Amino acid sequence: xxxxxxxxxxxxxxxxxxxxxxxxxxxxxxxxxxxxxxxxxxxxxxxxxxxxxxxxxxxxxxxxxxxxxxxxxxxxxxxxxxxxxxxxxxxxxxxxxxxxxxxxxxxxxxxxxxxxxxxxxxxxxxxxxxxxxxxxxxxxxxxxxxxxxxxxxxxxxxxxxxxxxxxxxxxxxxxxxxxxxxxxxxxxxxxxxxxxxxxxxxxxxxxxxxxxxxxxxxxxxxxxxxxxxxxxxxxxxxxxxxxxxxxxxxxxxxxxxxxxxxxxxxxxxxxxxxxxxxxxxxxxxxxxxxxxxxxxxxxxxxxxxxxxxxxxxxxxxxxxxxxxxxxxxxxxxxxxxxxxxxxxxxxxxxxxxxxxxxxxxxxxxxxxxxxxxxxxxxxxxxxxxxxxxxxxxxxxxxxxxxxxxxxxxxxxxxxxxxxxxxxxxxxxxxxxxxxxxxxxxxxxxxxxxxxxxxxxxxxxxxxxxxxxxxxxxxxxxxxxxxxxxxxxxxxxxxxxxxxxxxxxxxxxxxxxxxxxxxxxxxxxxxxxxxxxxxxxxxxxxxxxxxxxxxxxxxxxxxxxxxxxxxxxxxxxxxxxxxxxxxxxxxxxxxxxxxxxxxxxxxxxxxxxxxxxxxxxxxxxxxxxxxxxxxxxxxxxxxxxxxxxxxxxxxxxxxxxxxxxxxxxxxxxxxxxxxxxxxxxxxxxxxxxxxxxxxxxxxxxxxxxxxxxxxxxxxxxxxxxxxxxxxxxxxxxxxxxxxxxxxxxxxxxxxxxxxxxxxxxxxxxxxxxxxxxxxxxxxxxxxxxxxxxxxxxxxxxxxxxxxxxxxxxxxxxxxxxxxxxxxxxxxxxxxxxxxxxxxxxxxxxxxxxxxxxxxxxxxxxxxxxxxxxxxxxxxxxxxxxxxxxxxxxxxxxxxxxxxxxxxxxxxxxxxxxxxxxxxxxxxxxxxxxxxxxxxxxxxxxxxxxxxxxxxxxxxxxxxxxxxxxxxxxxxxxxxxxxxxxxxxxxxxxxxxxxxxxxxxxxxxxxxxxxxxxxxxxxxxxxxxxxxxxxxxxxxxxxxxxxxxxxxxxxxxxxxxxxxxxxxxxxxxxxxxxxxxxxxxxxxxxxxxxxxxxx
Length: 1093
Prior knowledge:
Blueprint: H1 30-37, H2 48-64, H3 66-74, H4 78-110, H5 112-122, H6 142-174, E1 181-187, E2 194-201, E3 209-227, E4 232-249, E5 261-266, E6 271-278, H7 288-304, E7 310-313, H8 321-325, E8 331-341, E9 348-349, E10 354-355, E11 360-366, E12 369-372, E13 383-392, E14 400-406, E15 413-420, E16 433-436, E17 441-446, E18 451-453, H9 459-467, E19 479-489, E20 502-508, E21 511-514, E22 525-534, E23 541-548, E24 553-561, H10 563-566, E25 572-578, E26 587-598, E27 648-659, E28 666-667, E29 672-673, E30 678-684, E31 687-690, E32 701-711, E33 717-724, E34 731-739, H11 740-746, E35 748-754, E36 762-770, E37 772-773, H12 779-789, E38 800-810, E39 824-829, E40 832-835, E41 846-855, E42 862-869, E43 872-880, H13 882-885, E44 891-897, E45 906-916, E46 965-973, E47 978-987, E48 999-1006, E49 1014-1016, E50 1027-1035, H14 1038-1041, E51 1045-1052, E52 1065-1070, E53 1082-1085
Antiparallel strand pairs: 1-3, 2-3, 3-4, 4-5, 4-6, 5-7, 8-13, 8-17, 9-10, 11-12, 11-14, 14-15, 16-17, 18-26, 19-22, 19-26, 20-21, 20-23, 23-24, 25-26, 27-32, 27-36, 28-29, 30-31, 30-33, 33-34, 35-36, 37-45, 38-41, 38-45, 39-40, 39-42, 42-43, 44-45, 46-47, 46-53, 47-50, 48-49, 48-51, 51-52
């Protein structure tokens, strides 16, 4: 080792493992040690690298002689050389001094303890420091106290403004008896709040700064209040508050002010003492004093003691605000309260001459979570054997407090207390602890913290394990549910017509939580979180009741089965929920998060006898060992509700006519009375429609049809409002409402309904509920009926309801830069489109959303779907609805391959059709073969019977008529007072020439052959089997129609130069001999035009 480096000769055994390059705790083989210690010289003696290093060193030494050579070459004296050398040495010394100073500063800032010890060792004081030198974790903050002292008067001004302008009006509005409540004096005193110490936790989370402030306040505050109505004065003069306040600076951002928000809370309940004045002096009576302080402390704990937090955002639009205000728990600790021994005897009789025993019970507390054990009568060695579960929110910091009392009729006697610090250490697996007092001891088993997992795979294992655990008073929990209650919209008004004070009650089995009240609003924002333990998530449900706080009247409710969470992504539902027994648009926004409580090893030591941690029975630990990170398998089917596709209905609204409306158009100051130009507004389920205007008519007839998709949400109404159209402002003509519940229960309503808020007028309506039927057997009849009842001024009626459940997608393409997208789904049918929610930053999004579309012609329409990310298309899909007609149940439920996307990009969804069958259309169903028509000629649900066959195939010949046949429907529409003829098709027409004709159908209503009674279809080019599907109408009363005949001529459209003008054939119908209410399509044989009718 001689070449340029000298070291003492050591054997491999004398060199520490760390110096040899080995990892601690890893034994290296001798061959490996030899490789590390002695790479060995090159065969030629000096290696090439060593030779280059030697040449480099020689060259640097030659450079030192260069200034001397240049000085001699220039004829300079030796003094110049010495001057240059002195300048260089001075520069070198100054540079080395700066480097040593910088290194010392870095060492002092990095590890003060090591720096002080190194300095002491260099001064000859040795490595051990004096006893008076220490390095506390909690540091003083006198500079902060000086700032608080300087700012305290201004804080007092702010508190005065807050109490007078905000708090006092809220108190006066909360109760009628407090309408004269005022603050008569507000003085925060001269003694400010003090920070006795600050501890900074440097954890692994680099996105936050954690501070623990030891807060102490013993101030001369004076606040006086008065309720003048009752001559009541009260107040506070002096207060003490001591506690540990945790401040979290989170998130840290790369922009001013660097910190996104401040989160503050007390980890444990602070101690409080208040000096009352005025009538509240009564609260200083022994017994009442502690009770009043406890009540106030409970109020403080309700918003400033874990799990409650005070969030102060420092930047606008903080997206993490809800998560910071109510973060998910860090875990759940299961505490087994076993037994106590040798407790004090507190029950004594005959003035202490006879010593009794005690009636002990325990209070176990973590933060605001408190459990009280049962009382064991007359026992100094009680055995409880009870289990409690606590949510752990902060690590480190939370503590488990245990207090024992002797139950007495008056005041319970204190038996002792214990404190288990560092709940966070349980994460490392501390399995037991014993707490002792002056007399007696107590055995407590602390199970390891149960990790909350965001997936379903270990749930079955947890449920099986819990069955083997004997737990009192409650069975062990398998999961924890956190409900983030955000806000509600459009709640109904109170019965008095005033805005309510909404509160929310959430219940799971016999556990109920209640939110705060939000005063005088129908769109409250609670921004609260609630936590529930779940024993069997698959069979439990959360019931949400929205109530008016002042009267406890119900404003709406919703029940969510927790089984929905089990199939949701990350066991989370984040969406709006429609309220039942509420307004039509009343809904509530919540986020429900479930976490499975999983432990790698089972909990033991459930016996009543105290046991040490080393004596725990671990004989069954291997039975439950498993992985806590198994991912759920990919689903093959979507997971909608069981009633998906059937839970929605279509309401068909037929606006017919009105009578006896008020005349609003008056002229010359009312001397000449005119009429009105009425129109109607219709509203249901958030959709609005407007009819056409009927000019100068007090008995207008609209005859318009509207269709709306609705859910069975109580409280909805079909609303109608009539107006008179004017140049400036339209005049009100009346309104009426029909409860949707009535329509859903009766299925059909045909009534004249009187108009409200006006002197006269009534409205004729037809309302029908069309439930979707998952069968294609009646589709052709529905299409035929729709073509008959279709009004001239309404859109084409819907024949089916399309329900789409978008579950999830997988392997979506990434953004540029390999960043995951934030995808959403856009769905459209014709000109109707919907968007799903955005799933943030994931290539495997889960949407879990349902959509509904009204479909008019399912044979020719299709569902268009696009997966987008900020406007960029990640994939698309087109589903022709004709595919659904060929499936059983009219549904498709599987993974669909996305086009214009990645090779493995797919979307899981369920697409389902439901046929809308009207039972009250006015068209009688065709159940038996019509006269003159055999069974073979009846419709059989084939598309070619009603619509043009796309492949141009000729239907089979069903008649021996030499001229062919005409398919025709003749029906009288009583609501429109019209005769309707639907020309469907012709088949097997005869051609009188070598060329194929261009047929059309001409209809004449006899005996009148004028232009007013003639109708004709469009021309079909070069076909012997034309398809028309056209509707022709005559506006005539039924009495007149029954005395007429209808002739239908099939003609060939030819040029005016052609001689061929003879009809191909004709059909003659005597309307007086026909049942015009049936409206069934029939095939009629064509006859020669020269034959007699």
